[in-house]
Amino acid sequence: MLFISSKDNPRIKQLVKLQKSARFRRQSGLFIAEGLRVCSDAMRSGAVIRTLYVTEQAAEKFSSQYEELCAYAEETVMLTDHIFATVSDTQTPQGFLCTIKTLDKTIQFDTIKDSGKFLALDNVQDPNNLGTILRSAEAFGVSGVILSADCCDIYNPKVVRGSMGAVYRVPFVICGTIAAFLGEHPELHSYAAVVSSDAERISDIVFDAPCVAVIGNEGNGLGRETIDACGHRITIPMKGNAESLNASAAATIIIWEMLR
Q1: Which H or E run includes 15?
Q2: Which of 17, 67, 151, 251 could bond 147 through an S-S bridge, CB–CB 3.0 to 4.6 Å?
Q3: Predicted confidence band of residue 38 (pLDDT cuts 50, 70, 90)
């Protein structure tokens, strides 16, 4: 087993780049999962774990989980506590971190039945929002998630951790623009989520499958091109002085209404 105690080691430099750079994640075909639960979820979901990085203290404290992960991963590398802290993205590291092969969900997505109910995300930027949305999508049984190319990187470590493993299991596809995707799939009944008094109230909608509900950017909502590409405009009625909802809160409400 390899043991690393220097921050100048090429593997450590690679981990730092994987944490910080979406471009490097795309180029290398790898992403990071940190934390015992998130790493274990990757294993249980059948993701390819290239390398398990662990501290000696963590391996001893969680010996049974460590042995299981060690047997599953292609290789295991031991890090000192100090070096692990330099590559960690959390304030209180557990001492478990994996590099995982990026997930090819295209075939899985293409095989979804025509009766599916989907969620589309247009330029959603906050990794915490995206992680929460993926978690809700799995919890309520969304058939798949469509992301525009300008969304936050789905392999961002905060997305992976915030999704609580959903990123491994929810079918997803990344397209150029949501408007173009809808143009290529006219069979989908499409619903643009907007803040507008003249839009249809979501509680009055019957979501006929196959369908897709589209959520927009946190600050600006959906662009005109995306709205025009949708067959319907829907809104979540609000009381008080609230003008809009957080993207993940809005998405969760819409998912519930679409699938209930």
Answers
A1: helix 10-20
A2: 151
A3: very high
